[in-house]
ABC transporter ATP-binding protein (Kocuria flava), 275 residues
Amino acid sequence: MLTIDNVHKTFFAGTVNERRALAGVSLRLEEGDFLTVIGSNGAGKSTILNTISGTLIPDSGTVRVDDHDVTRLPEHKRARYLSRVFQDPMKGSSPTMTVEQNMAIAYQRGKSRGLVPGLTGARRTLFREKLASLELGLENRLGAKVGLLSGGQRQALSLLMATFSEPRILLLDEHTAALDPQRADLVSRLTGEIVAEQGLTTVMVTHNMEQALRLGNRLIMMHEGRILFELDDEQKRSMTVPGLLEQFRRLQPGAGQDAFDDATLFESVKTDDGR
């Protein structure tokens, strides 16, 4: 389905700022897999996501979607296979357009545009039904400017719109990181429901270890451009956040907890305390 084979990426090669972002990463996702990606700062999490999306072209190696080699395909052409939700709630939608206008554009993504109305009665009914499933009251705000929505509402809307085109692969780029805990939990729950309902093949980068264990059927931890280890569905169900940290320390001596950012450590402490 999605195959990443021996991918390398180095930034600022040949300079004093040279940084190896990916060092021979290989990965294969089957149809319907939901992979969560965690790791230390600078581990290569965003780089692997950008390599899949086409934002970055690898120095070597291949990226394939189904039987298509998309390694050197530009981002706008790769969009036919992919949808992405970004960390920033301000991305993925137009703040000056209404909810229904944004949804109409997303609905036509990947389809032949032609000279047809973007908004019809049937489509408004569909949009209301989809929005009602979010349980945020947005089905009653089709005419509201998206810029007036809260961050959580906007991110939930972006998630919904990203799945309209029935993408082969859904990319989630720390899509709850900028939200307050309550809204983050809401969007996280909606993510699990939407992905399961549509059977979407998904790659989610997150700094939240608890979220990474709760969502999806596979998990990888990255460090310094490499995949340190992988957990399958059964292993994920029995793993804990302290267990993940201990696994990291065991495989990467000397790195310890300092390799993780404050938000990740907060999730670890919260899980240990039970609060």
